[in-house]
What we know:
Elements: E1 2-3, H1 9-23, E2 31-32, H2 37-43, E3 51-53, H3 58-66, E4 71-75, H4 78-86, E5 92-94, H5 102-111, E6 117-119, H6 127-136, H7 150-155, H8 158-175
Parallel strand pairs: 1-2, 3-4, 4-5, 5-6
Helix pairs in contact: 5-6, 6-8
Amino acid sequence: EYTNRGAKALENFEKLTVFVRAEYPGKFLGIGTVKTAEDAKKFLPLKPDFLVSPMGNPQVALLCKEHDVPWMPGCLTPTEIFNASENGAAVIKIFPASAVEPSFVKAVKAVFPEIHVMPTGGIKPEKAVLTEWLDAGAICVGMGSELIEKRLLEAGNWSELRQKMKNAREVILSCKP
């Protein structure tokens, strides 16, 4: 997921889309932090594989449905989860996950077993943390600043960032049943 932040987000996503499709065929690339229908209208012509929102905007849901793009809205209450599901959400982004515990996902899955959930926000790439969320019923987890630290980006410390991502991948693979 590429995050829609900053004045060059659309331009950068377009370039990233071309690169990923050429260099990594079969991999998925979506756009995140899409809050409004206007934002969705800018990114949907680039054919993202999915679209992520920090909240459940029904106008964004409708546009995603029209373009046959999976929509993943951020929700934090059973009402929001139900409404997002009714509006066609492919996956519910539990956001911010740092505000709840894995037991929340377990309780949600008891009531909505058919809904796929992805906790995001404050998820550390540690085996115990990931295992707890996945065991609670999460289909996957979203990791942003916990994985790609701002200090590493600002310092241009690509080797440490690569190693951190490699370690996270190994942790994630070790959590698979």
